[in-house]
Design a protein that fits this description.
Strand content: 15-25%
Largest sheet: 7 strands, mixed
Shape: globular
Strand order of the largest sheet: 3-4-5-6-7-8-9
Bound molecules: adenosine-2'-5'-diphosphate, magnesium ion
Function: Converts adenosine 3'-phosphate 5'-phosphosulfate (PAPS) to adenosine 5'-phosphosulfate (APS) and 3'(2')-phosphoadenosine 5'-phosphate (PAP) to AMP.
Catalytic activity: 3'-phosphoadenylyl sulfate + H2O = adenosine 5'-phosphosulfate + phosphate; adenosine 2',5'-bisphosphate + H2O = AMP + phosphate; adenosine 3',5'-bisphosphate + H2O = AMP + phosphate
Low-confidence stretches: 364-368
CATH class of the largest domain: Alpha Beta
InterPro entries: DPNP, Inositol_monoP_metal-BS, Inositol_monoP_superfamily, Inositol_monophosphatase-like, Inositol_monophosphatase_CS
CATH superfamily of the largest domain: Fructose-1,6-Bisphosphatase, subunit A, domain 1
CATH architecture of the largest domain: 2-Layer Sandwich
Helix content: 25-40%
Keywords: Hydrolase, Magnesium, Metal-binding
Family: Belongs to the inositol monophosphatase superfamily.
């Protein structure tokens, strides 16, 4: 990628994600992942805490005054000595092979207390002003636990706009031309031969991929969304979890569009990462619950990478995603990501199907 605006931020974000992925892959390969259930009943593991600590430590060292909005917090570790020590043992041992790159990420965490404090640096409010990093250390923890897809997601926003996005996907094929295959979301071995991709984008500079494992030493490749012109030739992907997106509505929309291929289900922002390199075309995430509000860390990196690869991401009303609203995406409901040439057709099918449901309100159709 050209060295210009945000080159340093991009470089550090890529290295930080790459290093944290070494930790998550080691944790995924073990049987004791230290799973806890959070107050909202979602799982968190040694991998989530450890990756958050390592990534924020690198951000603290390089961009000391930036805000950080990250998913996890340290309270559950403060109350659990044995888990805290396990997380610390992974964190202190995880380093990049390349010494020069490791040094760029800083001198590391001093002790367990420093690690807990660093995890809690992710409690910022976010919002529409200044530099805000947003981090999901393991997006798709359920996928991580079922040995499926997961992603490490990191993005930088400036005044509410996403400028840099990085997605590390340890279980996606390293090969950008690998097709989107129905087995992709199923059980995998952790990492391994032929797996692991690091995607990145800077606003206005395109989207790129490189192997996750070789990182800085590997050549980057430009990636782009599918050029398919006929929506009937498209493949769509969606969450594995039926509680996270509405499989029924999504099937109705595919039918309305004349799509006959079965959807491909996988966890996490690996869905954005797949369509951004033309493995499949469409990612639909229509709400199941009327009360769940999506989080900025679940979409910021994927949104930028897809748009920089030639795609469009909107909510069901056709509005761009507004990341300046704080930790949650209060202005958007339902996500539609697709190649630009297909997006309008898909959005109109989404609105038709949802509009026919008695309990749905489409606010207004907006032209982008
Ligand atoms: N009810 C919900 N609706 C939509 N997304 C949800 C819901 N509950 C949790 N999530 C989030 O969806 C993301 C995973 O999406 P996917 O199913 O596409 O892999 C996770 O970040 C998860 O949050 P959390 O990390 O708190 O579990
Ligand atoms: Mg997530
Ligand atoms: Mg997460
Ligand atoms: Mg979570």
């Amino acid at each position: 990628m050209a060295s210009s605006d945000y080159a340093h931020e991009l470089h550090i974000a890529q290295l930080a994600v790459q290093r944290a992925a070494i930790l998550t892959q080691r944790v995924q390969a073990t049987t004791s992942k230290g799973t806890l259930s959070k107050s909202d009943h979602s799982p968190v593991t040694i991998g989530d805490f450890g990756a958050q600590a390592l990534i924020i430590a690198a951000l603290r060292h390089n961009f000391h005054s930036d805000q950080i909005v990250a998913e996890e917090e340290a309270d559950d570790l403060r109350n659990n000595e044995s888990l805290r020590e396990k997380v610390w043992s992974y964190v202190k041992e995880t380093k990049l092979d390349d010494r020069e790159s490791e040094e760029k990420l800083g001198s590391g965490l001093k002790d367990v207390d420093d690690m807990l404090n660093v995890i809690d640096l992710g409690k910022s409010k976010g919002g529409r002003s200044g530099r805000v990093w947003t981090l999901d250390p393991i997006d798709g923890t359920k996928g991580f636990l079922r040995m499926g897809q997961y992603a490490l997601a990191l993005a930088l926003m400036v005044d509410g706009d996403v400028k840099v996005g990085v997605l590390g996907c340890p279980n996606l094929p390293v090969d950008d031309t690998a097709p989107l295959d129905a087995d992709i979301g199923k059980d995998q071995t952790s990492g391994g031969e032929g797996k692991g991709v690091l995607e990145a984008a800077v606003l206005g500079q395109g989207a790129f991929s490189r192997p996750l494992t070789t990182g800085a030493l590997a050549k980057e490749r430009k990636i782009s969304m599918s050029k398919v012109e006929k929506v009937t030739d498209a493949t769509f992907c969606e969450s594995v979890e039926a509680a996270h997106s509405n499989h029924g509505d999504q099937a109705d929309i595919a039918k309305a569009l004349g799509i006959t291929r079965e959807s491909v289900r996988m966890d996490s922002q690996a869905k954005y990462a797949s369509i951004a390199r033309g493995a499949g075309e469409i990612y639909l995430r229509l709400p199941v619950s009327k009360t769940y509000v999506e989080k900025i860390w679940d979409h910021a990196a994927g949104d930028l990478i897809v748009r920089e690869a030639g795609g469009m991401v909107t909510d069901v009303n056709g509005k761009r995603i507004d990341f300046g609203t704080g930790r949650t995406l209060t202005e958007n409901k339902g996500f539609v990501a697709a190649p630009s040439q297909l997006h309008a057709t898909i959005l109109s099918a989404v609105q038709k199907v949802l509009g026919a449901k008695s309990d749905w309100e489409i606010v207004e159709k907006q032209t982008l």
